[in-house]
Design brief:
Elements (H helix, E strand, L loop, with lengths): L1 H7 L1 E9 L8 E9 L2 E5 L2 H5 L6 E4 L5 E4 L7 E6 L4 E6 L2 H25 L3
Antiparallel strand pairs: 1-2, 1-7, 2-3, 3-4, 5-6, 6-7
Protein name: Oxysterol-binding protein
InterPro entries: Boi1/Boi2-like, PH-like_dom_sf, PH_domain
GO biological process, one term: receptor recycling
């Protein structure tokens, strides 16, 4: 039952995503939705509610890792590392940062549990 709850847990809200361009240190605000092992992002909450295609996604596969970044001047930054990329996200406050990190860690733990269980199938 706990595994089902982790997979069905949905976390949503605004986060800022850092540009992938190394020379740019800019962030853009997106509406993020955690659905199972996928972290989807949309231009806005309205686009998500209108069932528009997502702007992008991050697959929280078994090789994924999440970590906080050193905080300066009240910035709540964390990173999601996959096999192929690192995504830097910034929350509005510590509470939102913790909520997102707990939701993502729950999805990552689900991946580890599923991998262990797959040996018994």
């Amino acid at each position: 039952m706990a595994e089902d709850n982790a997979m069905n847990q949905k976390v949503s809200g605004y986060l800022e995503k850092k540009s992938k361009m190394k020379m740019m240190n800019s962030y853009k605000r997106y509406w993020f939705v955690l659905e199972g092992r996928l972290l989807l992002y949309y231009r806005s909450k309205d686009e998500y509610e209108a069932i528009s295609p997502c702007k992008g996604s991050i697959n929280l596969g078994p090789a994924c890792n999440i970590k906080t970044c050193p905080s300066t001047s009240g910035v709540y930054v964390f990173q999601i590392e996959t096999r192929t990329s690192t995504t830097t996200l910034r929350a509005d406050n510590r509470e939102d940062q913790n909520r997102w990190m707990q939701g993502i860690m729950s999805a990552l733990n689900q991946n580890k549990n599923a991998k262990k269980l797959s040996h018994f199938r």
